[in-house]
Amino acid sequence: MPSCGPDSGNTDGNGFGGQTVTEEKMFQGFPDAGQGTLRFRKNGEFRLLVVTDTQDIDRPQEATLAMLDAELDAADADLVLLLGDQIHGPAIGHDEEKTRTALAAILDIIAQHHVPFAAVFGNHDDEGGVSKETQLGWYQSYPDCLMVKGSAGYGVGNYNMLVWSEDGTKPLANLWMIDSGTYCPKQDGTYDWVHEEQIKWYEETSRRIADRNGGAKVPAYVFQHIIVPEIYDLLTVTDASAKGQSNVVRGFGTWDRNYYRMGEGFRAGNLRECPCPPDHNGGEFEAMKEMGDVRAMFFGHDHTNDFVGTYEGIDLVNTDGTGFFLYGPGGDHGGRLIILHEDDPSHYETNMLYWKDVVKAPLPTDGSATNGAVYMFYTRRYLPLLLLAGAGVTAGTLTMRRRSQRKQEKGSGNGK
Ligand SMILES: [Fe+2]
């Protein structure tokens, strides 16, 4: 199993021995944030665990931590990839200590498994007010962290990691980590998009890898938080009368006038909620299709979707959330195992590691498994007030009704 302990020169925990990441420091001249540490195993496998939307606070849900721990046990991964919303910034607020505590609760569990990990940011990570740059430093304080800021010119955490042959002589797969941003100006929709500078960086880096590799493209896999708008080209518009059927959802944003179902092109999984991409298409998918290296793109963000589908030659794959602080898919909370094979790195195997299969404990019974702990918290806090208010309204209505009846009785006694 690859590791990035002292042998890799990773002495100060930032993955680069305190050096600035420059092309010169990259492994054998390839752009590679992993610096050659990620290699296929002797048995020809490279095992990735995708974990997304742990999205908890400084006093995290026990179920979130149990889920993460069980995923790590079950995956026996060579690399863990966190796909954003590791913490829920808005609920933590602009408090550095609490933010760091929330993140540490997640990263400490990964550290206990002594497995290299890397991350991208989601829309909630810095929403409490603690910057991505500050948080990046906290990630990098873990010796097994391979995450870097990158030089794409937009976002924090655009970088790539190569997976090398078992003997370390040849890069066989490439992992793109992309910061899909947070929110956009209201007139442009809700979510930000992958910007021109990032696409340019991707194209240039992809070309550099191919040049360095004797002109051959290295099969690549993309990991980011928010799904690309092309997901709605992969879905099939369906009649509104199909509402309520399984795998039928109403669209989001610019697509919200229609209902959609998983049509041709889907091979596995569930569509339980509307995918929420940016309204604006910055051209990321088109660029990747054009470059021809990307085989599949993996996303989080939509906590209850775990489909696998293919659109114009590239797989679009969603992973259910791991966290129990916000809404989730009950016993289908979990992470995604991806297995690459050294003799055919253009293809991959994947399956979800669900709570119902890997956690040796019943689901929480407080409703947090589907509604989220925060929803249940506010329901519990405000339900008595609502009941009281409801009782007051009912009593008031009854009194008024009685008064009105008495008036009517008096009136009818007059014989009018
Ligand atoms: Fe998100």
The name of the CATH architecture of the largest domain is: 4-Layer Sandwich
**In order across it, which strands form the biggest sheet?**
4-5-6-11-13-12-10
Q: Determine the CATH superfamily of the largest domain.
A: Metallo-dependent phosphatases
Tell me the overall shape. globular
Rg computed from alpha carbons, rounded to a whole number of angstroms: 25 Å
Low-confidence stretches: 1-24, 411-416
The fraction of residues assigned to DSSP E strands is 15-25%
Order of helices and strands: EHEHHEHEEHEHEEEEHEEEEEHHH
Count of distinct strands: 15
Secondary-structure-derived class: alpha/beta
Can you list the ligands bound to this structure?
Answer: fe (ii) ion
Helix and strand topology:
Blueprint: E1 45-51, H1 62-75, E2 79-82, H2 89-92, H3 96-112, E3 117-119, H4 132-140, E4 159-164, E5 171-177, H5 196-212, E6 220-223, H6 231-234, E7 235-238, E8 248-250, E9 259-262, E10 266-268, H7 284-291, E11 294-299, E12 308-311, E13 314-318, E14 334-341, E15 348-354, H8 355-358, H9 368-371, H10 373-413
Parallel strand pairs: 1-2, 2-3, 5-6, 6-11, 11-13
Antiparallel strand pairs: 1-14, 4-5, 7-9, 8-9, 10-12, 12-13, 14-15
Helix pairs in contact: 1-3, 5-7
